[in-house]
Design a protein that fits this description.
four-stranded antiparallel β-sheet, six-stranded mixed β-sheet, binds adenosine-5'-diphosphate, 343 residues, 2 domains, binds magnesium ion, Rossmann fold, Alpha-Beta Plaits
Length: 343
């Protein structure tokens, strides 16, 4: 069986123009710009099976949105191509558009002065659906995400979670085989995010048997939802597998998690210098600069533990909790890049 989505060396480079010179120089001379090339999607080769819920996990700027835009023909690749539902994104863009539903997070893409029902009717007409076909479909979709009670209110009165549910069914109106969901829970409160996740897994994948490509920078979301995950960074796929396989690739490493206060920035490099430690990731608590979490990768926790605590205590660090933990996808990312997923 051929895959539902297949990318073949898919590549997209942008030219970013950055202003050169100081403000003062730019005021008295002609403004010069220095073009900088960013390869947002870099020779990506992926195969997504029919009915699979596939995750693209990576930090901000990794190339997730660009990949989605290429797959739904909003962008044209510079190199390589992709097949979506068997159709080539460059040669058969219209067929591709019929095959996919795209859902992006955030505030755009809906008409705030229209009601939810009017929004859906508008998009159905854009897909050339006749009203007698789309109207019952719209009722069904509104019910599916429990917006039927408020379908005739204008969208501007909706909460973020409600808007996101409406976004989701907007992508379903023409009953596409493949769904491209770009950070569908971005910025939602935990309860609204859970509703969206359950909907995607239970309704869209299990019941409606859709093929789903979902992008996220939330590692827990990818872990819970996705059958397989591609980890991307700087446009490149750097890891691929089921969540369990990805974590197993780290099974040789012990991971120590330390919660502490009064942590200096230098703690990271000091700990990295200790023999037997392969990676250290330090992240500060937003609310209080000195409060931080350290994740330390080592082959043998027991042998490095005394030196870790000594080093930290000698710098005045107060350790609140220290434990050995099971690897998460965050640790997989740290192991692959030396950085945390969310800096
Ligand atoms: N239209 C554009 N023009 C120039 N650079 C862009 C454009 N769109 C994206 N980029 C750059 O491409 C890279 C990948 O961006 P994006 O695909 O939005 O990443 P993500 O969705 O993973 O955060 C980033 O460095 C971003 O600045
Ligand atoms: Mg994005």
């Amino acid at each position: 069986m051929s895959p539902a989505v297949e990318t073949l060396d898919l590549t997209k480079t942008f030219v970013k123009k950055t202003l050169k010179g100081s403000i003062f120089k730019r005021m008295i001379r002609r403004v010069t710009t220095k073009p900088e090339h960013v390869t947002a999607v870099d020779h990506v080769n992926l195969q997504i099976g029919e009915g699979e819920l596939f995750g693209l996990l990576g930090p901000n700027g990794a190339g997730k949105t660009s990949t989605i835009k290429l797959l739904c023909t909003l962008l044209v690749p510079d190199q390589g191509t992709a097949k979506v539902n068997g159709y080539d994104i460059v040669k058969e863009p219209n067929k591709v558009r019929e095959s996919v539903g795209v859902v992006t997070g955030g505030e755009r893409g809906l008409y705030w002065r229209l009601t939810a029902r009017e929004n859906l009717l508008f998009f159905a007409r854009m897909y050339d659906m006749s009203d007698h076909v789309s109207k019952p479909k719209i009722d069904e979709l509104l019910k599916l995400v429990e917006l039927d009670g408020r379908a005739d209110e204008t969208v501007e009165k909706y909460s973020r979670g409600m808007k996101q549910r409406l976004h989701l069914i907007r992508g379903l109106i023409h009953d596409p085989a493949i769904l491209l969901l770009d950070e569908p829970t971005l910025g939602l409160d935990p309860a609204s995010a859970r509703v969206i996740r359950d909907f995607v897994k239970q309704r869209l994948q299990r019941e409606q048997k859709k093929t789903i490509l979902l992008t996220t920078h939330y590692m827990d979301e990818a872990d819970q939802l996705c059958d397989r995950i591609a980890i991307i960074d700087n446009g490149k796929v750097i890891g691929l597998g089921t969540p369990a396989e990805l974590k197993k690739s780290l099974s040789q490493a012990d991971i120590i998690q330390i919660n502490a206060s009064n942590v200096p920035e230098a703690a990271e490099s000091l700990l990295k210098n200790i023999e037997g430690i392969s990676e250290v990731a330090l992240s500060f608590d937003d609310s209080d600069a000195g409060r931080a979490q350290l994740r330390i990768h080592t082959m043998d926790a027991e042998s490095v533990l005394p030196e870790i605590t000594q080093t930290l205590v000698s710098k005045g660090v107060k350790i609140h909790a220290l434990q050995e933990i099971e690897p998460t996808l965050e640790d997989v990312f740290i192991g692959l890049t030396g950085r945390k997923l969310r800096d």
